[in-house]
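yo, Branched-chain amino acid ABC transporter permease is done. seq:
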Amino acid sequence: MDRLVLLVSTGVARGLVIALFALSLVIIWRAARIVNFAQAAMAVMAVYVAFAIEAATGSYLLALLAALVTGALLGVAVERGLMRHVAGRTPMPGMIVAIGLVMVLQSLLGILFGAKHRPMTPVLSESPLYVGGVPVLSRYDLFVLVVALVVVVGLGLLFNRSTLGLQLRASAVAPEVSRLLGVRVPRMVTIGWMLSSAVAALAVLLLVPTELGLNAHSGDVLFVHAFTVAVLGGLDSPAGALLGGVVVGVLVSLVTGYASAGLAPLAVLALLTTVLLVRPGGIFAAKEARTA
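structure:
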C-alpha cells in the first residue's frame, strides 16, 4: 500500500509536467492551428540558457526566469521568421517546417554541447516526505506540483476571464471576423507562440532535474507523452490536457513501478488506441455545429 501511494503521488507530479507541455501544444493549436513538432527542441534550447545562467550565478530563480524569457523569444523568432511565411490553408505545411526545425535545432545543440547528459541538481530535495509513516511526494515534487497548478490556473484565467484570452481564441477560430472587429490577428498569433514556447520551456526545466540530465533530446519523451495527452483530451481542450496529463503520469508511474520502464510506452500507446477507437476527436473534443 505504501508503494502504491508513493507511485500515485509521484505520478500526479510527473503528470502535471506532462499536462503543462500538453497545454503548450493546445495553446499553439488554438492560436495558429498547427501542431508544433519543434516544441521540445525549442524548450530544450531555452533550458540550456537557463543551465548556463544557473551555473554562472548559482540562482535557480534567475534560471527559471531565463528559461521563460528565452522560450518566449524563441517562439517569436520561429513565428515571425518561419511560420508567418508558410503558405497553405491546412496545418500540414507548418508541421513539415516544424519537423525540419527539430532537425536543425537538435543538430545545432549536438554540435555546440555534444551528446553528453549534463546533470541538473533539483532546487529541493528528492527524498520523499512521510505522512503517517507513508512515503508521499518529495519536496521537489511538491514544488513542481505547486508551480504547475499555478501556471494551469493562470492560463485558465487568461483564456476564459480576460480580453486578451478572448482575442486569442477569436483570432484562431475566426481570423477574418476578428480582423473586422479590430483584433490584430498577427499579433495574437505571435502572443500565442510566446505563451506556448514559454510554458514548454518551463515544463522541460521542471522535468530535467529528475531525469538523466540535459542534452539535445531531453524533451523527446516528454513531447511524445504530451502529444498523446493532447490528442486524448482533444487539441482544443485545456481541461483535456490537464486531466490526460495526470492520467498518463500516473499510468507511467504505476507501470514502471510494478512492471518495468520498458512497458510504460506500450501502456501509453494502448491507452491512446483505446480512447481514439471510442472518441476519435479526443475525450473533450468540442462537437461541431451542423451546417445543413
